[in-house]
Every structure is written in C-alpha cells, then in structure tokens.
Amino acid sequence: MISLCKNYVDSSSTNYIMSAVNDTKFNSAVFLLTGIPGKEDVHLWISIPFCLMYVISIVGNSVILFIIKTDPSLHEPMYIFLSMLAITDLALSISTMPTTLGIYLFNSREISLDACFSQLFFIHMFECIESSVLLLMAFDRFIAICDPLRYASILTLPRIDKMGLVCVLRGVAIMLPLPFLLQQFQYCQSNVLSHCYCINQDVMKLACSDIRINSIYGLSVTLLTEGLDSLLIFLSYVMILKTVLSISSHVECLRALNTCVSHLCAVLLFYTPMIGLSVIHRWGKGTSSLIKILLGYISLLVPPLMNPIVLKSKHLRVRIIRVFGEDRSKPLGS
Fold first, then answer.
1. I want to staple 104 with a disulfide (CB 3.0 to 4.6 A). Which of 47, 77, 297, 308 is the partner?
2. Is residue 130 within 8 Å of residue 92, measured between CB atoms?
C-alpha cells in the first residue's frame, strides 16, 4: 500500500514537472520564417535585389510625399489621395523589411509569438488601409469624370481628412481581433511558416486547436474589406466607362480614360496577387510552395515598389524633375 502511494506521488510529480516544462516551452515558443527553400547558400546574393526593392520603395514614396507637401499647387484631392497611398506603402514596406532582410542578410529565421502576432496585425491593417485608399482614388476619378461641376464642392479638404481617418479606423478596428484570436491557440504542430513574414492564414494553420472561428472571421474580413472595395472600384469604373463612351469627342474620351490608367494599374498590382495568395492558402493544398512564396513576395513588395512609378501624373513628374533639376544646377556651397 505504501509502495503504491509512493508510486502515485512520484507519477504525479513527474506529470507536474513535464507539464511545467511543456508550459515553459510553449511560452518561449518561436516560429521559423522561410526564405527560398534550397537556396540557403546564396541568401546573401538574393538579399541584393530585396535591398534594392526596399530602397526604391522607401525613396520613391518619400519623394512623392515631399513634393506634394512642399508644393501648394499639388494640394488637390487627387494628390492628397496619392500621398495617403504613399504613406501606406511606406508603412507596409517597413512592416515586412526587418524579417525579410533578417533572413537573407543574417540568416535569422526565428520570430517570437508576440513579434509574429504584432507583425501580422500591422501587415493586414496596412493592406486594409491601402485597399480603402485605392477605393477613395476610384471615387475621386468617378466624381472628376461623371460629375466635374460638383468636384470641388464634394471633395473638400475637411471631407478628405475625415475619409482618411475613417480608412485608418476601419483598418485598426477590423484587424485588431486577429492577434488576440491567435493568442488563444496552442501551437504544438510544426512551427515553420511559409513566408518570410507573418500573416493570419499562414499562422493559424500551425495551431492544434479548433481554428474555425478564426478561419470564418478571416474570410469575413477579406470579403468585407478587399472583396467589397474591389467590387465598388469595379462598379465605379463601369460608371466611368459609361460616361466616357457618351462623350462625342474622341480626344476628350481618350484624355478622360488616360487619367484612370495609372490607378487601374495600381489596383491590378494590389488585388491580383493578394486574391491569388488568399485562394492558395485556403483551398490550394496541392499548390507548389514556390508559387506560394513568390505570390507572397509579389503581394507585399511589388505594390510599394511600383506605385510611385505607375501613379506619377505628368504634373507631378514635372514638379519632381524641376525640384531635382534646380538642386543639381546649384553650385556647391550655395
């Protein structure tokens, strides 16, 4: 009897110690980020184009912000929306840069749970804000082409400020529950992520808990943000096209369409890879991991890189050339 009691106590003590070890292990758990599988020996060389992409993104968007801020003639709705997009692109680049360059420059793959949850919150929030800004830019083009006489009275500066604030509050309110939902899960499966940054649909797959609520919420968020915004952008361009085709002058028709081309390019650059990546994560179980990784890079790195190039209007381009041309023509020490 004494022996049985002793064995029971020893067994209980062992279970308690193992439970404590498991809890400690869970609290200090980390995720492992993924670069390009099989190319670990050339990560340093791969870092060169990534560094160039980040430099071009940050410098390009910063130049646009500087020119718009310092030139009073550019304080118009179209350029204010462009500056909003530039700020969002800067924030999105900064959100992914530490982990991306950390992998390729320093071979640092580990990221703590809290850091991962924080990064995915900021990435998804800025994606939501960028989607909202692209919708505002479509609204701007819609008013300018379909109702030009009321353009100045509808898009006033105070109203534009409120629109920008709503975009930010919308992104924060919708994406804030994501990290808290993920914190409720236990991660006892493989801790290797599919990308060099954290996103919700990738992290929740590593949980060994029931993720149905998180999955439903994530899908609902996608449909109510990027899905709804892209639908409204499509409808606005249907109305724009209907108005443009009713113009009798071919020159005026082409001029009106030309004002929309750059915005359409930005919309396609943003939504196409994002929708493709979301579909692959949810339903593309047999898809190659390389395609998933490439789409991940394209969805978050290409829009901030290309938007300063495709969205620069002729007026803004002239201002940039004039500013840098004047600076270059000044003698040293002047």
1. 47
2. yes
